[in-house]
């Protein structure tokens, strides 16, 4: 059965939205559940509505979606977020999240610097980070967030580039190859 989020929400070109495949979403949801079981119970989804709305009820209970698309604003966990203004997040959210998942609409250094500021503002010390970007950004992402490329690569069916996941921790799930991705990537 296909993911309900994928059926309900079409990608919006004006927001540069590209959704993960059903299988990639399942891997991310399973990772969120694993983090939750390890005590990382408050998760911030920055520009990742497909993950947020696919998470289990338990994992989503104390989690938030930070996004610019107001189509999601009826959800109690929605926080309007324009990545151009990370300083607008508000002091009540500072250092309150155990884990953060980020998939920006753009992959330039300028955009990543803004997302890195938001991550550092929101994340508790010792928190977990998962981001999605192109391999060419690996050195920059390590410099900005101290994260490393993982083996598992997300499938994003309507995106022309192949992305990878980068994390600041070891995840057995992300050490396995995604069978959706051809061997030549």
Descriptive notes:
It is found in: Cytoplasm. It comes from Blepharisma stoltei. This is N6-adenine methyltransferase. Its main location: cytoplasm. It is a single chain. 38% of the residues are buried. The chain has a seven-stranded mixed beta sheet. The protein has one domain: Vaccinia Virus protein VP39 (Rossmann fold, 3-Layer(aba) Sandwich), CATH 3.40.50. The chain has helices spanning 4-8, 22-37, 49-52, 57-60, 109-122, 138-145, and strands at 43-46, 64-67, 78-80, 97-102, 123-134, 148-149, 163-167. It contains six helices and seven strands; from the N terminus they run ααβααβββαβαββ. The model has no long low-confidence stretch (mean pLDDT 93). The two termini are 27 Å apart. Helix 5 (109-122) links the parallel strand 4 (97-102) and strand 5.
């Amino acid at each position: 059965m296909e993911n309900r989020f994928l059926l309900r929400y079409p990608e919006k070109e004006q927001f540069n939205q590209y959704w993960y495949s059903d299988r990639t979403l399942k891997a991310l949801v399973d990772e969120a559940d694993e983090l939750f079981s390890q005590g990382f119970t408050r998760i911030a989804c920055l520009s990742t509505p497909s993950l947020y709305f696919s998470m289990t009820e338990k994992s989503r209970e104390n989690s938030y979606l930070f996004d610019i698309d107001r189509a999601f604003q009826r959800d109690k966990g929605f926080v309007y977020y324009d990545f151009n203004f990370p300083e607008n997040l508000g002091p009540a959210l500072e250092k309150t999240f155990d884990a953060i998942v980020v998939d920006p609409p753009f992959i330039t250094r300028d955009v990543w610097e803004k997302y890195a500021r938001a991550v550092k503002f929101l994340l508790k010390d010792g928190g977990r980070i998962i981001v999605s970007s192109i391999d060419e950004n690996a050195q920059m992402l390590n410099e900005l967030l101290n994260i490393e490329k993982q083996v598992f690569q997300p499938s994003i069916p309507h995106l022309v580039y192949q992305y990878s996941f980068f994390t600041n921790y070891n995840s057995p799930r992300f050490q396995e190859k995604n069978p959706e991705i051809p061997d030549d990537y």
